[in-house]
Amino acid sequence: MYCYVISDLMSDGILTPDQFAIQSTVSRMARATNKGALGTIIAEEVLTYSMFELQIIGGRLNVEIAKLPYPYRERVRPYLRDQIFGAYHTLLSQYRTGTFQKMTSSFRDPDLFASYCQMIPDGCTAWDERMWKNPEIWSPKHRLFYYLISAYTMFVEDLPGHPVGMPFPGGQFVERRGREYYCPIREKEKDVFFSICNYCPAKPTE
Predict the structure, then answer these.
(1) pTM for the full model?
(2) β-strand 203-204 against 175-177: which pairing, if any?
(3) Which of 47, 111, 172, 175 has the least CB density, counted as fewest CB within 10 Å?
(4) Would you state the pLDDT for residue 7?
(5) How many angstroms separate the CA atoms of 35 and 130, rounded?
(6) What is the pLDDT of residues 161-204, one digit of tens each?
(7) Do residues 205 and 195 make contact, with C-beta atoms less than 8 angstroms apart?
(8) Phi, psi of 55 (to 5 degrees)
């Protein structure tokens, strides 16, 4: 039913091709019934990104890092890269070795996962891309990559959206205590509907 609806929206000119692709991807994700199924879907989706598209995403990440004040940007750089591309390589490794086929655990919070899927389409277009020096080569599909990787991290692996050890201004950082994770900004982006922090399994730092 959902697929027919988004097909009608595109034929009526309501959705652009990028928006249609995003809606189709989200529709697949929303039908996942366990962690392994979601991991497989996400891996299949990120494999559709070309090397050029990955270079654009990596270039955009470098631009964002360069905007951060020194010396903080040097401390946080490896964590931000690991958040996106470290997780990307781990995801594909698990996909290619058949790990997801053996992963049948349910989502820790199905309702939160459903809410995350509902947020993605609008989240992909919520950013002001005019501030980037090459807005003509950036598309909502590149932002989708960020949400796909974050979905893998938070809903398949049950890990914080930001890697353990990642520092924040003020000296706090994401940490693990036993089996629980804590993040200093977990509760600080509630007004930003497209922030992954609102869906993160980490608890607020006490």
Answers:
(1) 0.90
(2) unpaired
(3) 111
(4) 41
(5) 36
(6) 999 999 998 889 999 999 999 999 998 888 899 999 999 999 99
(7) no
(8) -65, -40
